[in-house]
Amino acid sequence: MDLFSTKIVYASLDSFIGKVDRMIINPLILFLFALAVAYFLYGVLEFFLNQENDEKKTTGKSHMLWGVIGITIMLGVWTILGIITNTLGISGQINPEQGTVDLR
Predict the structure, then answer these.
(1) Phi-psi domain of 89 (left: phi exceeds 0; alpha: psi -120 through 50; beta: other)
(2) CA 45 to CA 78: how far, in whole Å?
(3) pTM for the whole structure
(4) What is the pLDDT of residues 39-80, one digit of tens each?
(5) Is 21 in contact with 81 (CB distance < 8 Å)?
(6) How far is CA 24 from CA 1, 10, 18, 28, 87, in A?
(7) With 60 as the cut, is the pLDDT of residue 5 above it?
């Protein structure tokens, strides 16, 4: 077994990047996306339940705005990561034991 084989290094690096994306980044983006949606819905409830109080309506509008901004940012991050992984072909089959990388 050649320990300095570039095939194994590339395979393990691609495997590591794929696992980080799949196990850490995607769940984090989903959590932040859910948090932004919850913040938006909290703003909607605050806006509609406090129709007589202008100050509460204003804070509800602010929460809705920041919720939409958060949703937009999370969708943008997810799109950019998808473009990067598809461009680099990281989502293919990787077998470090055989030293093969089957990229799309």
Answers:
(1) left
(2) 28
(3) 0.65
(4) 999 999 999 999 999 999 999 999 999 999 999 998 898 888
(5) yes
(6) 32, 21, 10, 6, 20
(7) no
For the chain, give the longest Cα–Cα distance: 75
* Tokens linked to 43: 């703003």
- Summarised one tens digit per residue, pLDDT across range 6-27 is 555 556 766 777 777 778 877 8
The DSSP-derived string for the chain is --TT-HHHHHHHHHHHHHHHIIIIIHHHHHHHHHHHHHHHHHHHHHHHHTTT-HHHHHHHHHHHHHHHHHHHHHHHHHHHHHHHHHHHTTTSEEETTTTEEE--
Separation of alpha carbons 46 and 60, rounded Å: 5
